[in-house]
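Explain this one:

_____
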Amino acid sequence: MGPMCWCAPRPATRPPTCCVDEDRPESAGRDITWQQAEDSEEVTERAVVLWSGEVLLKSGKGLAGPFYTHQSAAAAWAFSTGLSMPRAEVFGAQLVRWLCAKSREDLLLAGGDREFRRLNRLWMAPIRTAAVFPIALPGGAQERVGALS
């Protein structure tokens, strides 16, 4: 299964017209080195950018959304998921920019959290956090903290 398109469901036979070229991740403009096991050979390849949204809960846990090729899709997931939950449970939401080995992008886009956990158990993971951006939710803790500064 290929990457999922954020603008419409993706049929198995062909992508929607709006996503023919846009569903490929952008190049990160750098390489990433990863290694399956301590005694295996290091692999260096081009990195691509993937995005995910997260909702942080006041309990200290959180929810991570799927990986997307588009920043806006991941931000929309985090925003809508955060708003759909009881306000008393939600601490905030964030957008995460990931660098991923190009050869592993399809696995992450199709396999989500299960594949992310598997790849993170490798000796040197082929996916790494590049940046985290807060997403302000109406009436949320992040909005109140921002008003104090």
User: Anything to note?
Assistant: The longest strand covers residues 43-57. Residues 25-138 form one domain.
